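Appendix B. Extra example for self-study. Work through it before the problem class; the solution is given directly after the inputs so you can check yourself.
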Amino acid sequence: MTELKIDSLHFSYTSDARVLKGIDLRLNDKTTAIVGQNGAGKTTFVKLLKGLLQPDEGVITLNGQDTKDSTAANLAKYVGMVFQNPNDQIFKNKVVNEVMFGPLNLGRNERDSRDKALAALKKVGLEHRSGNNPYDLSLSERKMISIASVLAMDTDVVIFDEPTMGQDFAGKETIKDIISELRNHGKLVLCILHDMDFAAEVFERAIVFNQGKVLLDGPSREVFANKMVLEQAFLEQPQVMQVAQAFGLEGSYLTEDELIERLKG
Amino acid sequence: MSIVDVEGLKYKYPDTDKLVLDDISFKVEKGEFIGLIGRNTAGKSSLCFALSGLIPHFFKGAYGGKVLIDGAEIKQHDMGEIAANIGLVFENPFSQMTGSKYSVYEEIAFGLENIGIEREKMISRIDESLELLDITAIKDNNPFDLSGGQMQRVAIASVIAMRPDVLILDEPTSQLDPQGSAEVFKVVENLTNEGITIIMAEHKMEKVSQYADKVLLLDNGKIIDYDTPANVFSRDDLLEFGIAAPVVTRVAKALGIKDAQSGEYPVTLAEISRENW
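Solution. Structure tokens for the complete assembly:
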């Protein structure tokens, strides 16, 4: 079992503004969504987990090992992260080379890396694009390429920063499948989301960030039913919950099917 | 006369075989808010480019038919003239930043400088746009030091400051948090009250159904439907076009709740609250 333990984490980019003000969390192999408004510190938090930033105060341990003792390069074997903006991540001129870069970098041989890359491209539905230049693809396709690049590395921890950005219905379904597959393989999946419906439907646990702190942490069913805390964090409840309330229902509904069943019954 | 009049528009990108816009015809009246929906690759961004002149002036390729904005044919005018009347907010705000300005304030001024707005007017328009998008606090920051959400706000502000007659937005809220995207929809709706016409490509169907006067559904470069949100989202074949109706409509469909007179399903929360189900 993979476990990330975060104790009293503080971070600031500049001396005048604290971004993270004391985060304490245990993350294990459940799927977890992180929600919060722009500027709440979500991206900064996951960059710290990945070792791209160093804490000012506090400790992050991965399976008992202080991540401060590892270099970002070493940590990359265990922690994979899909960036919010695929343009920050993609740099090769051929899709397959881009996706192979991770496994090659981790020391796998050419053939193994290519197999991993092609398998990952298949998962995101872009196998047919393996010979293209990533910059000839649309933004939503580039986002999928950046997801494939991280899947190909087969890390124990997989972090997504807004994976549904720019995705249509089919794209979201693909990402849903990828997340449940990762979960079934025992991976620790952590995902920053602005899409509350997606968060409620797909993730077992939800953490609400607000102004550099954790405002609420718990099972998705409880977190997304807590209208007051969500509003305090400038978030809204998932549509399914809003529709349930419009029908005058109390209780917590995470998926459309749950709600329909309740209304029919 | 309609402010936007598209007749038989066809287009394919250079070195490709497929028409990305295939015989598109529709009209938009002044002050209307049109939601442009469809799966990725349906042709939404290409249509945005064609309405704003990037097709055919920047993207070459094969072009047929006509796009008239306020009676003027896009193809016959150069980008400089078009830019004064039509604004486009790109899908990726990174693409919108000029890269030649060191502050958000200057970035927003760029378009206004280009069309020769006088100083006093520029200052008031910039301040107003900063205020509207709630980014006054970051006006001195470097545009490239911003988060995705902040940059998206700057991109929108820089186009709104130009006061275009027609404002085209290509998924302008993709990187914004729920409150931010609600604000953008409200700002844009207010612009329609000033007579600005809005065409917005968007995947958030709940917002489209709440704010748009009409919905244009594209698939495979063709118009599948162009009607009120209630009519478009009541269609039974939406999934075939890669679209899921708003949750409220899907739930209503499953329960058979529809307006007895019109036969339409509810598409907003407000409607379902009114229903006597």
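Self-check: The beta strands of chain B are 4-12, 21-28, 33-37, 62-69, 72-73, 86-89, 166-170, 197-201, 214-219, 222-227. If your reasoning did not lead you there, revisit section 3.
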